[in-house]
Amino acid sequence: MKFRVLDTFAGAGGFSLGFQLAGADLVGAIEIDSWACDTFRYNHPEAKVIQSDITSLTDEEILFHFGNDRPNVVLGGPPCQGFSICNKNNGDPKDPRNSLFEEFIRVGRLLDPEVMIMENVPNLIKAKTESGELVVDIIVNELKKIGYFVKYKILEATDYGVPQIRKRLVVIATKKEISDPFPPKTHVIGEQSDFLRVGMPKCPTLWEAISDLPEIEARQGSEVQPYTKPPENQYQKTLRGKSSQVHNHKAMNHSSRLVERFASMVWGQSTSDVPDHLKPLKRNSTEMSDKVYDQNNRRMFPHKPCHTIAASFYANFVHPHKNRNFTAREGARIQSFPDTYVFLGKPTVVSKKLLGREGRTDESYLCQYNQIGNAVPPLMANAIAEHLLKCIEDVACLSTETILSKKKITKQNILVEYQKNTLQKSA
């Protein structure tokens, strides 16, 4: 079976890329954000990319775009805000049937693919509606209603060689029942003795993911630049591929005070640990801020996997050795994007609230950091795709054997019946 993939809520295309690495053809993508669409088109020129709010696409439009070039796999990560699990203070959790998840279901109902895969935040597994129903149970039942066998599981990115502690809920729906559609663990975290003992390769550390990239300080780097050193391990060789230069490796324009703050921090420390005179100031003021967030600007350990690369990771982490935040390319490496994958749009943007106040809503798009942080790590997606393809092929083989077996039994019954009739006549 050849996978033909349509990616809904596609973002920059990390989910699609993982399937493409497994040999899939990309039929297309549906994504609302302009800059994310630019990135998807640039890196997947063969795919039909529909830039639109999926809720505004009619059934006829979806069938017009993808009905004749029908996918057999539909991917999607409907935003979790509709499930009311990101905001702990929300006392009225919404039913996913009234959220963007229903659009994912609608696409499945219209195109009837063999496989539908949804990924989302792991907390979704605990979320309940106001009436006490588990959100994940509703999702499973809605997929079953349109003809699928459904299973779900929380997957950890480090289990598949992604140098990042990142858990995601993955829901897999298939037309034919598969006992375990989720990929087995392929990597381990630990010392040399650990992975030799279990017979699996070691998951790369943060430093093993990014150490070969050009060394730049705050305010240095550019959108395109040459490599300055050779790759130092297999992970780096794999992600470099045939790339001849580094894209998206521009350090943020930190102030000298912020650089000084970072310089005071050791591995594991964050903004809350710096000396008082270096702590953040209130906006447009010389007074110290009374809000210091423990998770902001934490200096990462080089010899461990990175913490979760979120959409706002430009302010989450400090480079293990440099006094600056990560570049977009370092984030992409940690997410397991190859260096040939180029992110378009601006590296960062100011908050939507500020853009609105300043009348700059035309800049309210997903910047490079947002696109990277929102993505499904391609290596994890690739593990899902390769395992699922094998499972489907195995099920197809079993189905063929069953049919042949039934035919054989039928022939045997006819033969026995013939022999019985012949004996009766001769008697």
UniProtKB/TrEMBL annotation:
Coiled coil: none
DNA repair as UniProt keyword: no
Top-level taxon of origin: Bacteria
Entries under Gene3D superfamilies matching the protein: DNA Methylase, subunit A, domain 2 (3.90.120.10), Vaccinia Virus protein VP39 (3.40.50.150)
Catalytic reaction annotation: a 2'-deoxycytidine in DNA + S-adenosyl-L-methionine = a 5-methyl-2'-deoxycytidine in DNA + S-adenosyl-L-homocysteine + H(+)
Example of a GO MF term: DNA (cytosine-5-)-methyltransferase activity
Region (Disordered): 221-249
Biased composition (Polar residues): 231-246
The keyword Ligase belongs to this UniProt entry's keyword annotation: no
Catalytic site: C80
Pfam families cross-referenced by the UniProt entry: DNA_methylase (PF00145)
Family statement: Belongs to the class I-like SAM-binding methyltransferase superfamily. C5-methyltransferase family.
Protein name: Cytosine-specific methyltransferase
Source species of the chain: Massilia genomosp. 1
